[in-house]
Design brief:
Number of helices: 9
Number of strands: 0
Radius of gyration: 23 Å
Structural class: mainly alpha
Shape: elongated
Order of helices and strands: HHHHHHHHH
Strand content: under 5%
Oligomer: single chain
Helix content: 55-70%
Length: 188
């Protein structure tokens, strides 16, 4: 079968050298950006020694292929684009990816810079909550019963939004629907 070479048992394989470790990491980084912790784990799984891992990480950082701040910004942008999350959930996801707390604090303090073609992406926590709510409702109206509103609120809280932001997003959406209904009834 053409393609991937057959795997040798771990005990028979030689540990990778620095050049091989950089090559392994580059293949790992080819699919998407990764945190330094993820790359380090991948090299350790490849049985690279501690000195080899450190040398490879230093080379990758010098080349700009491994940068936790850039990774965290990319992760936030991907979440904003595809599945908006609240600050708390975004930070929890970054922690599971091994991003240090000081990098997360830098990300939290900065406002995302957007290119003109990315102007439709949410920039604030309230914008993210509205986007998540709109995606969840998919054109359906906000429930008018208290229990339905609570379920929506819990959905947003599970997505990492604080309760006040979730409540405000639901109320804003309900008010928007109420004004659009009033305008439709007034039309001849």
């Amino acid at each position: 079968m053409a393609g991937r070479p057959a795997r040798r048992p771990k005990d028979a394989a030689e540990p990778p050298g620095p050049n091989q470790a950089v090559e392994i990491a580059a293949r790992f980084l080819a699919t998407r950006p990764r945190s330094a912790w993820e790359v380090r784990r991948r090299l350790e799984r490849a049985a690279a020694g501690a000195a080899v891992v450190e040398e490879a990480m230093a080379r990758l950082e010098a080349l700009g292929l491994v940068d936790d701040i850039a990774f965290a910004r990319w992760w936030r942008e991907q979440r904003d684009r595809h599945a908006p999350r609240g600050r708390r959930m975004l930070e929890a996801e970054l922690r599971t990816k091994g991003v240090p707390r000081d990098v997360i604090a830098i990300l939290h303090d900065e406002t995302p810079t957007r290119l003109p073609e990315e102007a439709d992406l949410p920039a604030t926590e309230a914008d993210r909550a509205r986007e998540a709510l709109d995606a969840h409702l998919r054109g359906r109206p906000v429930p008018v019963d208290r229990r339905g509103e609570q379920r929506l609120g819990m959905f947003l809280v599970r997505r990492g939004f604080d309760p006040a932001t979730a409540r405000d997003a639901i109320r804003e959406r309900a008010a928007l629907e109420a004004t659009s209904l009033d305008g439709a009834e007034d039309a001849p």
